[in-house]
Amino acid sequence: MxxxxxxxxxxxxIVFANYFGVRAATDAFFVAFKIPNxxxxxxxxxxxxxxxxxxxxxxxxxxxxxxxxxxxxxxAGTLGILLLGVTFLGVIGAPVIISIFGAxxxxxxxxxxxxxxxxxxxxxxxxxxxxxxxxLASGILNTYRQFAxxxxxxxxxxxxxxxxxxxxxxxxxxxxxxxxxxxxxxxxVQLGFxxxxxxxxxMLPGPRWGWYHEGVTRIRRLMLPAIFGxxxxxxxxxxDTLIASFLVTGSVTWIYFSDRLVEFPVGVFGVALATxxxxxxxxxxxxxxxRQFFNLMDWAMRxxxxxxxxxxxxxxxxxxxxxxxxxxxxxxxxxxxxxxRLSLMAYTLGLPAFILVKVLASxxxxxxxxxxxxxxxxHAMLANVFLKLILVGLLLLVVFDGVHMGLxxxxxxxxxxxxxxxxxxxxxxxxxxxxxxxxxxxxxIMLASVIMxxxxxxxxxxxxxxxxxxxxxxxxxLSIWVLMGVMLFTVVLLILGIKPQQFLRPSRP
Length: 509
Prior knowledge:
Blueprint: H1 2-20, H2 24-62, H3 65-92, H4 94-101, H5 111-124, H6 127-143, H7 148-152, H8 154-168, H9 177-200, H10 214-229, H11 232-244, H12 251-286, H13 290-317, H14 319-327, H15 334-348, H16 351-365, H17 371-398, H18 404-428, H19 438-459, H20 463-467, H21 471-495
Helix pairs in contact: 1-8, 1-12, 2-5, 2-6, 2-10, 2-11, 2-12, 3-6, 4-5, 5-9, 6-9, 8-9, 10-17, 11-12, 11-18, 12-13, 12-15, 12-16, 13-15, 13-16, 13-19, 14-15, 14-21, 15-18, 16-18, 17-18, 19-21
């Protein structure tokens, strides 16, 4: 279901590129869309889910159904009222918010871009209200092992935005405005889709205010540090948008498309894996089963490494062909392809860290420890700011275009710092560590990935050659090279002694 959702998101971005291209209006929309999207990942899918699911899993494991319903009711009421207030302030204060997160739009000559961003933010900002309540419903369903419906829910956002772009935008004076309307509509639909399934579980809440309710208080205490600790990547991406707003027109959009392609494997695998293991790890911790906890972490980490490293190599090598095949039509020019390729290659270098952080952070959140990831995130954030300033400054000295690549590279490097610190503290606490066989496992994965990447680099061709082909040829040849890469990687792994049984299930205690 997560894969289906990501394919729908990919289709959405193809439509965006084809219908709107890269211009001032698209920069304005992506800023207006990224702000509530950032809040969604920060609060709804980030800190809230990581605090709510462990507490709900513990109550479910140790108490009766009435206690679970009581917790859900008080959380729903408290969250809903707070988000109504936040949404009101966000809509009223839209000019101030755009001034902060799109400060480059305040420069003389960008007045229209600023005004359009403000107008669209007033439609996109309420999305956080609906999607946070949808995250509450998702947390309930995931705890009860109903993973399919929450994973499918994002499809509605993508489908509605496609419909608005294709069916509504041609009739508007500013076509991009249709996308802002679509974000609002999608939030309502995503929440409404999950509520009947929650009701069938007997968990549809009658919202009640409960700021001092025992469960709400515990969730609040866990959320505060998790707000920062779980979202270092998202904060970094938002900073990319802020700095890019000062660069040449198109920089925000180039970074958006690059980020979306990196988010594809992160969402398909990293988010899905973390979503599945979090309630299971929480249950193992609640039942005091440290060996089973360790085995589940080990299994998830092997999957993360085995997928993320070849995905990094493959996407890095095929960055140009992938961008041409998906977006190289209509208003999206060859220059846009080349500029997006630079930031995509830089982001791709951080792909293993982006995915591993999802798994490693779950090891802390499942134990209701949100303070340790905060320490890692603080170090990573400071390093990220420093790296952005250094890399962007250096690139400004040597190139006219492509400066936005420095933003992506800084984000990738900072993710490794976050990842390394999380692993170090898990190991120091004896929660999880790499045993003797792990380094040989990683070496084999890297060797197979390098061989695969070398073959693709040698034979797949240059971006300009791909741009000259028609749609059918692009799709066929990209499919062939991706399939060949996967087959070559798999064969080399088998030759090197990696057995499929290692990935089937966690080791027995």
